[in-house]
Hints:
The protein is of the alpha+beta class. The protein has one domain (about 25-175). It has helices spanning about 1-15, 25-75, 95, 140-150; strands at about 110-115, 115-120, 120-125, 125-130, 160-165, 170-175. It has a four-stranded antiparallel beta sheet. Strand 5 (about 160-165) and strand 6 (about 170-175) form a beta hairpin. The longest helix has about 50 residues, at about 25-75. It is elongated, with a radius of gyration of 29 Å. The model has no long low-confidence stretch (mean pLDDT about 90).
Amino acid sequence: MKIARSNNRRLSDRCLGGIHGFTLLELSVVLFIISVVAALAVPAIKKATLEARSTTVANDLRVFAGALQTYTQEWGDWPAGNSEPGVFPPGMEGYLRTTNWERITPIGGFYTWSPNTVQQGQRYRAAIAIATVGPAKVSSDRVQLVDLDRKLDDGSLDTGQLRLGFRNQPVYVLEP
């Protein structure tokens, strides 16, 4: 019994006497593991954020295209143009009221209706552009824009419905 008591006393003396703690090597190993986990997590988080933005913009463009096409079926032609970015095209308030049209897009800028527009030398009868307005700049991240194109179209910003227009800002073509 004396042996057991002395072992207990030594253990409690060591813990209470300030001898306990982590060595520099143990702390270095923990910091190394944390840095490796962070290095692996940051690209995954960036990719997930990029994909979420692209998905939201693609869904918005599909909803807007549907609303504009409904207007065209009911009224026989596309709505008039000349509205400011983020402002409903004339006559479209009822069709777009519950959408994200008036908000800054997840990739920056505002949605704008562009009928009979010339973009990069091409004329389009009906298109939705995403335009920079003041500090709300449209992303010029090519990876972001190509991911958006893949979600909507063919993955090429030079062909299909989503293209780069004026100042390399995205344009979603509804009617060439």
